[in-house]
Amino acid sequence: MAKKKRQVKEEPPEEYEFKPSEFDEREFMLKDLYGTKVLLVVTAMAIAVGAIAAAIYNMSSGIWYAGMMISFATVILMKPVFLKLGFRVDLLDTKTMLGNYLLFLMLALGICIVGINAPF
Questions:
Q1: Domain limits, the chain
Q2: What integer pLDDT is reported at residue 2 of this predicted model?
Q3: Mean pLDDT, residues 10-31 taken together
Q4: Which of 16, 56, 60, 74 has the fewest CB atoms in 10 Å of its CB?
Q5: How far apart are CA 112 and CA 115, in angstroms?
């Protein structure tokens, strides 16, 4: 016996409408502004801490770990210091603050190395 062909009914395509979320321009600008301010303060702190670490190294004839400990202690205390200075660090993302911490360590290390070498 012959089988009947199965008839396939075409379903109408689903209609999908993209609805973008609300964009808060003020919050975006505040985050960007605070991020820039925090970055400038981090840069100034890194230059100061790097210079202090180089001075400690030069005065104590080779105690390098004191400057390193000061740098890491500054990174640990950075968020509370920013809160005391009036910066709203809670507006910044975790990855932004992580980038600020890494930038601080690298810049402080660079300033320390430049301060330790012979021309200075």
A1: 27-116
A2: 64
A3: 83
A4: 16
A5: 5
Per the model's pLDDT, the better-predicted residue between 83 and 118 turns out to be 83
One-letter amino acid of 63? I
Contacts of 40 (CB under 8 A, 6+ apart): none
pLDDT of 110 above 80: yes
Contacts of 11 (CB under 8 A, 6+ apart): none
Q: Rounded distance, CA 54 to CA 61, Å?
A: 11
DSSP track, 32-85: HHHHHHHHHHHHHHHHHHHHHHHHHHHHTTS-HHHHHHHHHHHHHTHHHHHHHH
The rounded mean pLDDT for the chain is 86
> What is the phi-psi region of residue 97: left when phi exceeds 0, alpha when psi lies from -120 to 50, beta otherwise?
alpha
pTM, entire model: 0.74
> Contact, 39 vs 99, CB < 8 A?
no
